[in-house]
Amino acid sequence: MGINMAKLGINEKSLPFEMSWMNKLKLAKEQGFSFVEMSIDETDTRISRLDWDRDQRFNLVKDIYETGIPIDTMMLSALRKFPLGSENKDIYTQAYNICKKAIILAKDLGIRNIQIAGYDEYYGTKTVLTAENFIENLQRVVDFAAANQVMISIETMDDYFINSIAKVKKIKQSIVSPWLQAYPDLGNISAWPDNIPGQDLMDGLDSIISIHVKDTLSVTENTPGKFKNVPFGTGDVEFLGLFKTLKRLAYQGTFTIEMWSENENDCLDRIIYAHDFVVGLLMQSGISIEE
């Protein structure tokens, strides 16, 4: 038993920054990807997408239909700057409003899954209150998402607060909703010494709706690890073993390659290499990729 066919997507930050949406979608299609993940990061330019007017939204929908490549997921990493658990009342409220706008944008664009960064606080101090605020604010977000039929998924992070699927499931004990699930990052769950990645995937399977694929360097007693810009095949992630685990578990969700190459001169070369590296290992594990 196991999956025979899976969809592989790519995050927007892997694609050339200066490209139009039409050309980003075309490039993703040309390189063998099934969908693109939109980035709403900490920059004003990308946060401003949450306030797009009807014409801007409709133009992107037309690009999606013309290319046949959907934007299935959104990465809402703006919540690093505006954390849901902030002790600052204004930021706490702003985080919720950002999430509400993201949910409406997702609904308008046909995005099914908003990935929320699992930070109670990122730049500020973590406290018991920031942890409680995170759960309280996330409950409001999930309620709004449920009313609009958009999935909210928590990513396992480069941060100890939520660095495993097991910790996402702990949050789900407080927020009981089918509209809150897990979006594990194979690199992140592999980097933390407290985690057994294969076991984490197995125990958390019923919560996993999509998976980020990236390489990382592990956290050790002497090093903080490295969670970004580790070229595929140069890090510590045991991709083949984890893909085989997912094959055995009959995982049915999608995979998304995650890189930060949008401003690199060799951006296209990195996309091609990443695609071939990941697809090769997926196929070796018995998982075929839908073209």
From TrEMBL:
Span of domain Xylose isomerase-like TIM barrel: 25-263
Metal-binding keyword on record: no
GO biological process, one term: L-ascorbic acid metabolic process
GO function terms (MF aspect): intramolecular oxidoreductase activity, interconverting aldoses and ketoses; L-ribulose-5-phosphate 3-epimerase activity
Keywords: Isomerase
Listed transmembrane segments: none
Aminoacyl-tRNA synthetase keyword on record: no
NCBIfam families per record: hxl6Piso_put, PRK13210.1
PANTHER family (UniProt xref): ISOMERASE, L-RIBULOSE-5-PHOSPHATE 3-EPIMERASE SGBU-RELATED
Protein name: L-ribulose-5-phosphate 3-epimerase
Protein source organism: Leuconostoc carnosum (strain JB16)
